[in-house]
């Protein structure tokens, strides 16, 4: 990383691997310190940095922010800022910028992929055939005519809904922050949505209010044979309750890209024949990572130049 730049340029510390083109663009306007090797490199470079760029791996807590004595901006190459203490950054007057739309297409496509995999029992059929077995019998489900209910109806949910409509599915949503549907999909109460959705897909941030949103009580409200999808945050689903609902036969299956603890340690859930799992890869496409890197670098550079970024999660922050 880095290039032939003046020492007068600001120092940007890259703590997690970013798209190469994005780093190259950053290096044209700032000195770039590669701290992706771990904690030692980050602690070495952070005190002198004006900018810190991370993905989801690095946890930017209040202590880390305090060590960044010269920080004027923190960039998150992605959507969620769960790994950043935004309140601490705001208190220091440090804007936190991100790339909210970078992974929309990739995550929406994974929703579709997980749903098809669960509905057609690919979690069992694929490894069975790879072991040399030929078990054609199965109880797959067609998606056409079924209703998918989105809990949270932002960009990703709407894009996933558009794709699932092409399968002949009906789309409805619950979102307490919306008074009007952006695309005409029916907006229901949570209770109404759960009772009338054969598929439920989660798309909300993890907050004290949404933790374990799909608990035993809410899972029981789903129709028998329903499917649960979670590509948002692991803590939205009570995994013990989910496993119980699968074991009882109340749920037909689940597709999970995220978990309460990552890497997950719930071996029984991971191995369940009705569950299709992926290791938090919703945004892990070449295209999404390229967009996340380029947008985040653009936002970081705007702050360093004294301009107003478009994607700032704490606009109330004021640099001191």
Molecular structure report:
Strands 7-6-8-9-10-11 form a 6-stranded parallel β-sheet, with helices on both faces. Helix 5 packs across helix 7. The relative contact order is 0.15. The chain folds into 2 domains: 11-102 and 286-304, Rossmann fold (3-Layer(aba) Sandwich), CATH 3.40.50; 104-277, Rossmann fold, CATH 3.40.50. It contains 12 helices and 11 strands. Strand 9, helix 10 (239-247) and strand 10 (251-256) form a beta-alpha-beta unit. With 320 residues, the chain is α/β, with parallel strands linked by helices.
Keywords:
320 residues; alpha/beta; Rossmann fold; 6-stranded parallel sheet; 5-stranded parallel sheet; 12 helices; elongated; disordered N terminus
Outline:
By secondary structure, this protein is of the alpha/beta class.
* Percent of residues in beta strands: 5-15%
Q: What is the domain tally?
A: 2
Shape: elongated
Tell me the number of strands. 11
Helix amount, in percent? 25-40%
**The level-1 CATH class of the largest domain:** Alpha Beta
* Oligomeric composition of the shown chains: single chain
Which series of helices and strands comes N to C? Answer: EHEHEHEHEHHEHEHEHEHEHEH
Average residue-wise pLDDT: 95
Question: Measured on Cα atoms, how large is the radius of gyration?
Answer: 22 Å
Calculate the terminal CA-CA distance, rounded to whole Å: 29 Å
Main beta sheet: strand number and arrangement?
A: 6 strands, parallel
């Amino acid at each position: 990383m880095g290039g032939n730049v003046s020492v007068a340029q600001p120092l940007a510390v890259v703590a997690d691997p970013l798209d190469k083109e994005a780093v190259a663009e950053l290096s044209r306007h700032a000195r770039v310190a590669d701290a992706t090797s771990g904690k030692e490199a980050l602690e070495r470079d952070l005190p002198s940095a004006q900018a810190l760029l991370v993905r989801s791996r690095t946890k930017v807590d209040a202590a880390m922010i305090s060590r960044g004595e010269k920080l004027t901006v923190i960039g998150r190459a992605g959507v969620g800022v769960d790994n950043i203490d935004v309140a601490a950054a705001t208190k220091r007057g440090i804007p936190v910028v991100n790339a909210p739309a970078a992974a929309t297409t990739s995550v929406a496509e994974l929703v579709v992929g997980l749903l098809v995999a669960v509905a057609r029992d690919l979690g069992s059929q694929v490894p069975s055939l790879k072991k040399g077995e030929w078990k054609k019998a199965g109880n797959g489900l067609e998606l056409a005519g079924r209703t998918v209910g989105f809990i949270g109806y932002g960009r990703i949910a709407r894009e996933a809904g558009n794709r699932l409509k092409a399968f002949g599915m009906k789309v409805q949503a619950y979102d307490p922050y919306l008074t009007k549907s952006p695309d005409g999909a029916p907006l229901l109460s949570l209770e109404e949505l759960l009772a009338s959705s054969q598929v439920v897909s989660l798309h909300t941030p993890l907050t004290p209010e949404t933790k374990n949103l799909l608990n035993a009580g809410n899972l029981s409200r789903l129709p028998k044979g329903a499917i649960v999808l979670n590509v948002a945050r692991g803590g939205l689903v009570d995994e013990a309750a989910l496993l119980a609902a699968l074991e009882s036969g109340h749920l037909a299956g689940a597709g999970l890209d995220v978990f309460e603890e990552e890497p997950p340690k719930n071996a029984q859930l991971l191995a369940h024949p009705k569950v299709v799992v992926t290791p938090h890869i919703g945004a892990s496409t070449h295209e999404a990572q390229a967009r996340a890197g380029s947008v985040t670098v653009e936002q970081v550079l705007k702050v360093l130049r004294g301009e107003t970024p478009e994607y700032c999660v704490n606009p109330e922050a004021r640099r001191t």
